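From the pipeline queue, job 12 of 40. The input is one protein chain; the requested action is below.

Action: predict structure.
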Amino acid sequence: MSGPDKPKVIGEEWSDERVKSFLAITPYDSNINPDFNALIKAYQAMIAEDFDRFVGFFVEAGRDLNAVDENGETILDLVSRHRRSTAYAETLRKAGAKTTAEAGS
């Protein structure tokens, strides 16, 4: 995160440990799916290359790529609406993620 007292860092290297640390992020609300929460937090914080590594660790840990949010949407549903997130969507699809429409068919 950046702000007036915290300058944005460009080109920062993320270690595997830092990327994996997002697996331990828990939602503040017990009604939020922990797998969806970890995915959305990683998506919001990571560049596409680090997110690709995270998804590999996520799947390796047996987590659910098709977990849904409180509106019944998957992370791929959300990412697919962002025109600058095609690399993220490709990573998710490659790992087996589906949109809600695809999962229902």
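Job complete. The chain has one domain: 14-102.
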